[in-house]
Write a structure and sequence with these properties.
Elements: E1 4-8, E2 20-21, E3 27-31, E4 36-40, E5 46-50, E6 60-65, E7 72-77, E8 81-86, E9 91-97, E10 101-108, E11 112-118, E12 124-129, E13 139-142, E14 150-154, E15 160-164, E16 170-175, E17 180-185, E18 197-202, E19 208-213, E20 217-222, E21 233-238, E22 244-249, E23 255-260, E24 265-269, E25 274-278, E26 285-290, E27 296-301, E28 305-310, E29 315-320, E30 338-340, E31 345-349, E32 355-360, E33 366-371, E34 390-397, E35 403-410, E36 423-431, E37 436-444, E38 452-457, E39 463-468, E40 472-479, E41 490-498, E42 504-511, E43 518-524, E44 527-533, E45 544-550, E46 559-565, E47 568-573, E48 577-581, E49 587-591, E50 595-600, E51 606-611, E52 614-619, E53 625-629, E54 638-643, E55 656-662, E56 666-672, E57 681-683, E58 686-688, H1 693-713, H2 719-738, H3 752-758, H4 763-792
Antiparallel strand pairs: 1-56, 2-3, 3-4, 4-5, 6-7, 7-8, 8-9, 10-11, 11-12, 12-13, 14-15, 15-16, 16-17, 18-19, 19-20, 20-21, 22-23, 23-24, 24-25, 26-27, 27-28, 28-29, 30-31, 31-32, 32-33, 34-35, 35-36, 36-37, 38-39, 39-40, 40-41, 42-43, 43-44, 44-45, 46-47, 47-48, 48-49, 50-51, 51-52, 52-53, ...
Helix pairs in contact: 1-2
InterPro entries: Beta-prop_WDR75_2nd, WD40/YVTN_repeat-like_dom_sf, WD40_repeat_dom_sf, WD40_rpt, WDR75
Keywords: Nucleus, Repeat, Ribosome biogenesis, rRNA processing, Transcription, WD repeat
Domain WD repeat-containing protein 75 second beta-propeller: 341-649
């Protein structure tokens, strides 16, 4: 059985760990799914991926700048490995192995690398590596910490460290000079109303602690090291109405930054309580960091977006892959995944409520967001309250990629207020000149007070069929512009059909092989009805008449999906799948599948059906089914096929590539088991090689040595063969010249003859070699003259 590996499609999740800024403020580092992204600040593009060869895709737990070399990045893995990378060249310099499970990494310039870890007895400790080199052993500072440290920070002097417990009830201050721990329990005196601490930061240069609380207040502690006073001096900053999620100081400590669920970055002038704001950032802010030169700040948001914000609080760059759905109502990606061939993009719900995101099919990068509802997201008054917002529930693109249709609905728990239950059907037309969609028609309550269930375009006509809980199939037709009557072009419903007053749901068009007629299938609860178009002209309006019904005995098992191919109709009920013959209406077979997502390959006869923890690839042509099992399949909510650049050895994926969405994890796809782990990863149209420079040079050296041995043993080569050999040698020399000396392989990998050629001879050796060469040339000349005379005679 062919094994398939599940991999992330495009840029993965970036919100799990805080971003890191390089010392020269040129790069931003983020931890993704099993790798670290290096982003260029000026352009917002991805320079490369590093630390990609980790076996465990969730192994990376933190990163820090090398305290001894600011051009190197230390990446910690959970299994105890610390990889030292030259991030500009993408070269792995060396690896440090610690016999503990790593939890967190922090570095202080000229003071060492601080490593929080956990041993086999679940005891937490703090270690310090003063000098990062090949063979170095950590120094244990605290062999037993009282709890799992969270919200860790250090001052720039390397004297104190700070962390809090996971409950937010205790603050721990580490004296790194005396190796002592001072504990502050949250009481009514030092923090009013017994508020829970959500985040904490220590001032880089002064004696001050900043604490974010559950109520939205920021508490500043001063003089907490003064032993004469029992309690520290306290002041408050209050703007946030919801809990403070993250805090950070600027590099010199002149500013304090706070953020939370309000989607606003607040910049406080230290000691003056003067806030300035960067509002409407789209989603809750999870992490914030400041560059060393204080020219920009980095914020990580719950929709998987990273903003680079200038010192004037304007957005400079936006980084990110797929916008994650951070609201519970959006988690299932209700509008699904659709292919927009004009821009080679995927269209789906955005992490911003009321937006659609267009994502590149080539590299998985976010292209842009399209505002559909025209509303700003407003956070709730209480974190436990449900947020009221309008979101896109359905979308569809016509076969020519000219029309985009969206259905939006306002989410609420109440079903009584018509305003809160507002529903709109919008028709958008693509303008090829401006390269964007323009609104053409907006229809309020397309199916009365009931919701719309599904939409589908006619394969050959400019018609749209919709179903809803009102029990009707509605056919929407485009009305052309009439300059005489001054009628503008618009969409309107000209016909509607119902069956037994049942709720209509799934839709499907099918064409029989015996005729050119296009029929419409629609499900009404557990029944599937067939409607024949009596007017089959492409330019005329369709007129449907009821023809037949495919019945199922259980009314409590409604139809959720329909699909037709090769004169067969696939009917997906809630707990089983039936296959019908469209020609004679006979039942073919049934499968005990609970399908919760499916996708049809437009370039083959296969259809992918996700059934609990199984994925079935069913072929309409031969009736064969290929199945795979994974626990991730149970959480899939949407799927789609895209063109496959490289043909797969797995038969169902030879013509197209299957991508699917998993909430909180993003888009996933498949890769063959025989593909190399160090494969080429497309980022921004460039291909980055994952192999290290040292191994590459060693392989080049060995290859050149083998080529020289083969050429010396064989007969003389032709001019083309010698040219190719010289090109390889020149390529090897260029690699040596462009690689720093400390990154070159060890001396035992070089050929002895090559080393001799690199040595500079002395003056005596040069004169002796010149004399010997002169004598040899005279001998050759004399020999040649004698031979030539003999031949002439």
């Amino acid at each position: 059985m062919k094994k398939l590996n599940i991999r992330s499609f495009g840029i993965g999740t970036l919100l799990k760990y805080p971003p890191l800024i390089s010392s020269d403020s040129k790069y931003v580092f983020t931890i993704g799914d099993g790798c670290v992204y290096v982003w260029i600040v000026k352009t917002g593009e991805c320079l490369r991926l590093i630390n990609q060869n980790s076996v465990d895709q969730q192994a990376i737990i933190g990163m820090a700048i090398n305290p001894n070399n600011r051009l190197q990045l230390c990446i910690g893995e959970q299994n105890g490995l610390i990889n030292i990378w030259d991030y500009e060249d993408g070269i792995l310099i060396h690896t440090i192995k610690l016999e503990i499970e790593l939890i967190h990494l922090s570095s202080i310039s000229n003071h060492g690398l601080y490593v929080f870890g956990k041993n086999t007895k679940n005891v937490y400790s703090l270690n310090r590596i003063e000098s990062i080199r090949h063979k170095c052993s950590p120094t244990v500072l605290f062999d037993k910490l009282p709890c799992l440290p969270t919200n860790i920070s250090f001052d720039q002097k390397g004297e104190y460290g700070l962390f809090i417990n996971s409950e937010g009830s205790t603050i721990y201050l580490l004296n790194l000079l005396n190796l002592q721990i001072k504990t502050y329990s949250i009481t009514k005196q030092n923090l009013s109303y017994h508020e829970k601490v959500t985040c904490a930061r220590i001032h880089p240069t002064e004696e001050c602690l900043a604490l974010g609380t559950q109520s939205g207040r920021i508490v500043l502690w001063y003089n907490y090291l003064n032993s004469s006073n029992k309690e520290p001096t306290i002041s408050y900053l209050h703007w946030h109405s919801l809990p403070v999620i993250c805090l950070t100081f600027s590099f010199d400590g002149s500013y304090l930054f706070s953020a939370g669920h309000e989607c606003v970055l607040v910049k406080w002038l230290y000691r003056k309580s003067e806030p300035t704001f960067c509002p409407r950032l789209g989603a809750s802010i999870l992490h914030v960091n400041s560059s060393n030169d204080q020219t920009f700040y980095v914020t990580t948001h719950s929709d998987n977006t990273i903003h680079l914000i200038g010192s004037n609080l304007s957005i400079l760059q936006t980084i990110g892959g797929i916008n994650q759905m951070f609201l519970p109502q959006q988690a299932s990606l209700p509008a699904g995944i659709h292919v927009f061939a004009r821009q080679q993009a995927l269209v789906m719900n955005s992490g911003k409520p009321g937006y659609l995101q267009f994502m590149s099919m080539e590299n998985g990068k976010l292209l842009y967001n399209l505002d559909i509802v025209g509303e700003n997201y407003v956070s709730p008054n209480e974190i436990t309250d449900q947020c009221l917002f309008t979101d896109i529930k359905r979308l569809i693109l016509d076969p020519t990629d000219t029309w985009l249709v969206t259905f939006e609905e306002r989410s609420t728990n109440s079903m009584n207020d018509d305003h809160q239950n507002e529903r709109k059907l919008r028709f958008w037309k693509f303008n090829s000149n401006s390269n964007q969609f323009e609104l053409n028609t907006s229809i309020t309550y397309p199916h009365g007070q009931e919701t719309l269930n599904q939409m589908l375009f006619h394969p050959y006509k400019l018609e749209l069929a919709t179903t809803g809980n009102d029990g009707f199939i509605k056919v929407w037709t485009f009305i052309q512009e009439n300059p005489i009557t001054k009628r503008v072009s618009h969409w309107r419903c000209l016909s509607g059909h119902t069956h037994r007053s049942y709720t209509s749901n799934a839709l499907c068009y099918y064409k029989l092989s015996s005729s050119d007629q296009i029929n419409l299938c629609c499900s009404f609860e557990h029944l599937v009805t067939v409607w024949i178009d009596t007017n089959n002209e492409k330019n005329d309006e369709s007129r449907y008449e009821y023809s037949r019904c495919f019945a199922h005995y259980d009314r409590k098992n409604p139809v959720e999906y329909l699909h037709s191919s090769a004169d067969q109709l696939l009917v997906c009920h809630k707990t089983l799948v039936n296959l019908w013959n469209c020609l004679n209406g006979q039942f073919i077979k049934s499968f005990s599948w609970h399908v919760h997502a499916l996708a049809k390959d437009p370039r083959s006869s296969f259809i992918a059906l996700f059934d609990k923890s199984f994925l079935h690839f069913y072929s309409f042509s031969d009736g064969k089914c290929h199945s795979r099992k994974s626990s991730l399949f149970r959480r899939v909510t949407s799927a789609a096929y895209i063109p496959n650049e490289k043909s797969s050895s797995f038969v169902p994926l030879q013509h197209s590539r299957l991508i699917f969405y998993i909430p909180q994890e993003g888009l996933k796809t498949f890769a063959d088991d025989d593909e190399e782990e160090n494969s080429l990863i497309p980022i921004d149209g460039k291909l980055e090689m994952e192999t290290t420079e040292k191994n590459l040079l060693v392989n080049l050296i060995r290859q050149s040595q083998n080529d020289l041995e083969i050429n010396s043993n064989n007969k003389p080569k032709s001019f083309d063969d010698l040219t190719k050999l010289n090109q390889r040698i020149n390529h090897l020399n260029q690699q040596f010249l462009s690689t720093p000396a400390y990154l070159l392989p060890s001396i035992d990998h070089y050929c002895i003859d090559s080393l001799k050629r690199m040595l500079l001879p002395t003056d005596n050796q040069i004169t002796k070699e010149n004399e010997s060469t002169d004598q040899m040339s005279l001998e050759r000349l004399s020999t040649m003259s004698v031979d030539s005379d003999e031949e002439h005679v």
